[in-house]
Structures are given as structure tokens and as C-alpha cells.
Amino acid sequence: MWLFALAGGIACSACSLLTSLDGLSDGAVGGATSDARGDQSTTGSGDARSDATSGDAAKALDAGGDSVTDANDDAGPNLHPNGTFESGTCDPFGGYQGTVDVVTTAHTGIGACRACALPQTTDFFTADDNRATGPGVVGATYHVEAWVRADPTRPPPVDVRLYLRNAVDTNGMFVDHGSNYSPVVTLDATWKRLETTYTFTQPGDLNVFVGADTAPNACFLFDDVVLQRVN
Dihedral through CA 112, CA 117, CA 119, CA 120, nearest 10? Predict the structure, then answer.
């Protein structure tokens, strides 16, 4: 299990995480600081497998009408406001201890995003959606997936995970009310799927982020983020 440090300078393992909201990302790309990271719960049930079970990829429409991979045919539409990155922006994803920018090496379509560690980053960095989807429903279970691969021009990080968590603003403090994450994958030139599920047990916002243990000049690509309610 990773030991995570928040933007407020507080380190914690397997506990509630607090940090001031000051200095957190507003969702801008190109080095904005994100909501930081958490380390809770147990490993999710993801794997790096194809999005097609019969040779034809199942499709769903996201909130903006874009066609994206649908890993759960029985689940609802994609709740994420910008999961396909076909609009030419990575918003609302921003970088924590790193930067996020648009690239054209895509899993589907013509747009994807690249997350790179800052030169001074020696431990971890993330691409964080800054709670863009809004509140989760207490009692509901959510499934998230994203596709990742190595950047063609930069070395890959040590490993990568996808996270889904319950994030709350309580009296000006950022509180992590629990999370789940996918198994790690080792990156190469092929796209690999990460996925996990999380059930909300108390009020809070849905927060999706991809986190990586860094290496010098490390970058990774991510695309086709799908967030669905499955019950």
C-alpha cells in the first residue's frame, strides 16, 4: 500500500485525510495542483483486459454526447463530464505534483491526455478530476475505468493505479471519506484498462484520479474515463 502525502503536508496511511482547500487545483491543466491523494480501503477488482467481449466494443454516451467505451452494459451512462478528451482539453483533470496536457496518441478518437511528474517530484504524481462529477448518492455503487499506456517520448512511471473516492469539504478542510483503487499495471506501448468500484456510505463528492509512482522525467497517457452508477 502506498503512503500518500497531501498538498497540506500531512502524511497518512489507512486513515482519514485532511488538508486545507487552499492551493488545490481549480481544474486547469499545465501544472495545476490537484486535490492530492488518498490511501484507504482495499484493492479493487480491475484488470487490463479488452473492452470488447465479442470483438465489437460496447459503447455508451457520456454527459456531453461523446461515444466512449462502456465496460458495464447494464450500468447507466457515463457520468464524467469530459472522459474522452475529444474537445481539445483535459479539463477538469489537473496535475498534483505534475502537469496534464492534451496529446493525439489516443485509445479511441483523436484526443487523450498526458500526465508528467514535475522535475522535483521524487515520490508520486497524479492526474485528478477535482471532484468534477459532484455528489455521489449514499448507498450507490459506482464503477470507474480508464485506459493508460506509456508516453512514446518519455520514460514511464514505476506503476499506475486508478482511484475512486468520496471527497468532502468540511468547514474549509478537505476530508477523504474512503476510496478504492485498481491493481497497479506496468506500462508499455499498449493501452491497458484500469477499473475499480466504490460504494458511498456517507455524503460526499465523487473524485476520480490516476496516480503513479514516479521515475525521472516520467509521464503516462490516459484516455476514455468512464464513471457509471451500477446500482
Answer: 160
Q: Is residue 212 one of the residues assigned to a domain?
A: yes
**Coil, strand or helix: which one is 174?**
strand
pTM of the predicted protein model: 0.70
**Count of domains observed in the chain:** 1
> Considering just the CA atoms, what is the radius of gyration of the chain in Å?
16
Confirm whether 53 is domain-assigned. Answer: no
Domain region containing 62: 4-48+58-229
- Full pLDDT tens readout for the chain, 231 residues: 343 333 333 333 333 333 322 333 333 333 333 444 443 333 333 333 333 333 333 333 333 333 444 445 557 899 999 999 999 999 999 999 999 999 999 999 999 999 999 999 999 999 999 999 999 999 999 999 999 999 999 999 999 999 999 998 777 666 788 999 999 999 999 999 999 999 999 999 999 999 999 999 999 999 999 999 999
**HSE of 9, CA atoms in CB hemisphere, 13 A:** 1
| Residue 47 DSSP class | -
**Is 73 exposed, middle or buried, given 0-12, 13-18 or 19+ CB atoms closer than 10 A?**
exposed
The residue type at 134: G
6, amino acid identity: L
Distances (CA, A) of 75 to 59, 60, 80, 228, 231: 11, 10, 14, 6, 8
